[in-house]
């Protein structure tokens, strides 16, 4: 799989999906990714907040929508009992994980296990839909 990224432009309040992540600082020993090529704008954008650069998980929800880190999903599990929740997709320790919106604790072992065992629906992302992070009683 070729890594695919998107980037949130805080200045313009918009998500960019056709982006290329790179580094133009040859003195940076950590090889961080401070710049992103925005295809729609035909320009490089410098990022000081690396959380605004999100990688595709390579996985899709039940409707075929691609899931990226920073997305919020609704999952429902049906077996002998029913369980459901809303979770934010994060990248941690080399894998995509889920943080429950209410408890901020991990649910499922990872995103792949959730998709294999649940109905999963992409609700939006934390930048364009910050209201999805609100706890609803």
Automatic annotation (TrEMBL):
Where is the YopX protein domain positioned along the sequence?
Answer: 4-134
Q: What is this protein called?
A: YopX family protein
| Signal peptide location | none
Q: Which organism is it from?
A: Streptococcus oralis
* Highest taxon in the source lineage: Bacteria
Coiled-coil ranges from the UniProt annotation:
none
NCBIfam families cross-referenced by the UniProt entry: phage_TIGR01671
What the entry lists under Pfam families is as follows: YopX
